Write a sequence for this structure.
């Protein structure tokens, strides 16, 4: 398969360009019988919509979804579900130069070479963060499927922005408040600090990165298809498809690499007939299979590549080094808007695996 | 596809069990015309062979490969290449108990549930680190293919064991010496410290984890198939298929998340007609596509789950908590033997992508 | 993968329903650099458009294509190409009953069971012949790709309608005239007979089937990926995806089964440095691989299932047998409109294989 | 995927060469808990074993299977099942010439071009009918799975050899006697005629083709994944992977193309709460989905390409036409030995679809 689809049984194919006619996605493999409306999708899209606060890009896009196939009487039918957002507010004026003067940290240079100069470079085309809206559309369907059939819920939030990191997170609070502040942080005090930090970077013509943490509750034991389709394998593949992601870890992750086995191993016990582990350093995955504990994943985003501060780069035509200041409308930090995207990608993978393992049946009960 | 194969055009299917008749792999999609002998494979297998030093398991396996299909006159034919290692020194006596008393940190519990009690639990069966020998067999073919056709070379080494971490690495030295010491460290002084650290952990009935870093040279610009088959996506999927891996990062990785964009962006320049970047925080990947700089990947391994030190766990039959001391022959730290495995998985993914992008032709020149 | 996509490297995903909002398709894997406009697609769509003659359904659909992604400056970019036809003239009044009274020869009963009653049954939903317009959209792109890069051309035509069969076909004539008569027949005299035969069947409240033959010129030697992705395997898979197809044969086909080997074998000779065979009983495929001779494929269509003549069937609710006369607007014979569909499916498979084998490069020359 | 594997959830990868070390297959996706022994496989292999009668090749191969992975306590575990037959009686002396003097009707020429001269041409290498033994190994597992879980049974038999065709077949008799005569015919009188016909062709240095018909009983309603993975699509793909197959039809097939719709449509009725059709012109498939009636498939095999009678062909080195008489040990008619191969391919596809649709669960009941 080429690269624009993901999944085995719950498959998503993304299409569209940042400054083209539209962006969209088709899902194949959603079981028939799931109650679904456009508002189920819109609710999730609104969480990553641009222009919602002072710390995001000022591009205005309502990002209104249209479901144009696969539903009948507000239920899925088993047929492919195509969803589209028509682009409205694209401004391609500032992109003519990227063909000859590639922006540092961007795909301009690599896509130019790979696609022989034919790719749509306007607004980074297929490589734009805007395409993550197609992940969210598909993710919203998978989230609803996981929730309605299995009671699975994924809660992601901003754990770190620049060097500000919150370690002590209360999941119940996170669930309630993360989408009530601009930075999608599970703690309003930290949210304020993070927000200020982003504004300060932007004032300096600079940008920040950070870390999103996702916790998934209600996962049954045994999702994952080792060896090569282990839960970590497929989750990481999906998460590294999000632009700007450069690191993924599960449970104790890199920190666990420095621990003794006796500390990192999670010991089993039984609580009201459910087998649990006392710690969760495994992040809910043992041997590539879910163990019934919460999935815990951290996703590292690099600082946004588009910055106003002048950088050196090459003029590919002349071979000269030039100074470049990236204008256009950009997020000084993509992390806050990436939070629903992480939730979506985690959900897409879990829905796929829940179908593969038979936890979600071929036809939902009416 | 079920989970035991990986790749799109250069496909590997792993089979076999730790304590069964054999372990093996079949490669489909290797282009015809590659010179290949069993010694090309054996050379790589010998790097991860057990029983080579005091810090690894004492299981004795010659791990001698037989190529039983796909070669003709010492050249690949385009037909599937099946390679087998017959198991010799398995000792299954200590595994009867894992069905009822799952070992912490292992797949015993999750695989029991997933496979309904039918899985071969002896020596962890399919979940054993021993299966990584099948990765190395396939990886050796992909390494030779990448080297002979494109001059690509992957150099992995142990960067960290427990809390001992080496930051200043000289790649030329690493290439020469990493397989000359027990820990596969690119620095003999650190190697000694790491080795002592492992022995100390074992003396305490405990285990260590660590980090393998891989650097790949000679990658052409444009490998990767965004969105969902980006180079990071497919590399991480492959690397998380290695047992005990819990974290993967590229370039500046998690560290880069705390940097300013102006510091993390790599600026372009030209050196003798090759377009380069002054730093390599991207780890050689921009927009999911290789940019011609060295790939830099770090892979985090959790401490080995099998430890002699007593741990609490459950007796699934009785529901009682019990104390368990894991006997059997195990590595106190899997990191050193994982180094060639990481090289293999990186090579498998790159060979696949080099075929997908046409950099490796359908038929090699005779 | 679920069932709504086909191909390995040139992948098509079909979506939409006969009486829904739209029908469409997304192509992933079309190389960048192909000149393409909506009129290239429309030209092919017009060949299967309904309502063009007295022998087809009276449903009026302009079937006007919109390309909504994947093009830039009238060239493909390497990104997914999404194409849509908005439905205009659907009339769903007559379909309420199919849920309880399945029409003989239709998918009503089987889809009801498979999709648990959730499928969109209006106008047969996903099972409608209307969906073949999505094959033609994708097929038009593959046809242009094959033509522009390799000079490949597929010429299909109606060989048989009911019991009227034309055996002596001149390919040059077929190329010129097949789309100038209502039945898509390569001989105007036979075309008239076939047309009368269809009208006669319709007057009797009945329907006819027939055979489409496709000949492909310019195929290079060596397309096909045996064993399981042989050219016959993948062509037949694609062709049996067309509704109403119940038989496929290559070259001498079933007739060849009764021949002696010495008669059926095609002997090699050389003509102006091209290796040819004197006969073409193989239909251009030896060992699952193209041999450079014209591909010759015959595709058998059953008589259209929708007939006005009363048939017996079941009322699923009551369990009683009832008499049913199928109203609605239907083709009394699907064969004429299937001709461009067969051309499309053949082209889709050949484009896929030409990319897999490297005959079509990853990036087209600018 | 390259071409040596088939299936989506029940996947088979074939490897090995006719005159190499071995032939074999790996199954991935067989659910855990199926009782399976080597004798279950051997029983099926024995049905296609060479050298059993005067009408087949005199190559002597015991074709003894070894299962080398995936079983534990005579039950499948969910892990890949690798099965091997070691080649014993290969005689490669007569094959040196095929590189320069391609045999008419064989893959010599096409494989030479495709694989750049690197393919193993001895005994036709990967293109040998011998490889169908790998289909039978995998098919035997799928047959047992279908039988044990769903009670599905496939009965194939020789319907036609040369111009001798048996039309009136009693399935109960076919089930009993087909493997008791040399031609695998469901009628002993016809069997004798067919056998004589084959011997006569061989005496003339010639060969015959024929038709295998397969009937599958016990298929539940709703197998198949339209559009592109319809039951006909996937069955035909699998059947056209058998060497020498040039035609496939379902139900009334090509004959139905000449019928009126009112005759070809099968009318529904109810018999003891099971919904049936009075005729079975659909061959048990409506809309690409099984309808609960017996599957009826006919598979056309061309006459064997290897004949002693001199044929003209090319010397590729000199460009001259030469006369060729194909020696070596060959079947004068492949049809009888193809009967269990057809049963195997049908079973592989049905097992795959039964898993995809959930009719076979992820874990079998213990």
């Amino acid at each position: 398969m080429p690269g624009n689809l993901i999944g085995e049984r719950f498959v998503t194919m993304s299409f569209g360009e940042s400054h083209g006619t539209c962006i969209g996605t088709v899902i194949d493999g959603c079981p028939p019988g799931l109650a679904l409306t456009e508002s189920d999708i819109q609710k999730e899209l609104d969480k990553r919509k641009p222009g919602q606060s002072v710390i995001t890009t000022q591009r205005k896009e309502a990002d209104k979804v249209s479901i144009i196939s696969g539903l009948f009487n507000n239920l899925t039918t088993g047929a492919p579900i195509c969803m589209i957002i028509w682009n409205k507010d694209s401004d391609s004026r500032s992109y003519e130069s990227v063909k000859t003067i590639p922006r540092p940290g961007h795909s301009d240079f690599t896509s130019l070479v790979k696609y022989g100069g034919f790719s749509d470079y306007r607004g980074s085309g297929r490589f734009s963060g805007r395409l993550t809206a197609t992940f969210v559309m598909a993710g919203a369907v998978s989230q609803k499927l996981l929730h309605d059939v299995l009671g699975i819920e994924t809660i992601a939030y901003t754990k770190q922005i620049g060097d500000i990191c919150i370690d002590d997170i209360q999941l119940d609070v996170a669930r309630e408040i993360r989408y009530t502040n601009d930075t999608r942080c599970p703690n309003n005090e930290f949210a304020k600090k993070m927000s200020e930090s982003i504004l300060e970077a932007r004032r300096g013509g600079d940008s920040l990165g950070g870390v999103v943490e996702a916790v998934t509750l209600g996962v049954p034991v045994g999702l994952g298809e080792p060896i090569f389709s282990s839960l970590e394998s497929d989750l990481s593949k999906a998460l590294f498809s999000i632009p700007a992601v450069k690191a993924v870890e599960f449970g104790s992750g890199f920190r666990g690499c420095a621990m003794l086995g006796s500390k990192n191993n999670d010991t089993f016990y039984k609580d009201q007939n459910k087998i649990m582990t006392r710690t969760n350093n495994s992040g809910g995955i043992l041997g590539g299979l879910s163990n019934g504990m919460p999935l815990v994943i951290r996703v590292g985003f690099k600082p946004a590549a588009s910055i106003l501060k002048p950088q050196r780069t090459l003029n590919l035509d002349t071979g000269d080094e030039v100074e470049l200041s990236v204008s256009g409308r950009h997020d000084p930090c993509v992390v806050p808007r990436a939070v629903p995207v992480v939730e979506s990608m985690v959900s897409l993978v879990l829905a796929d695996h829940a179908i593969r393992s038979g936890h979600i049946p071929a036809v939902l009960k009416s």
Chain B touches chain D through 49 residues (CB under 8 Å). The mean pLDDT of chain B is 95.
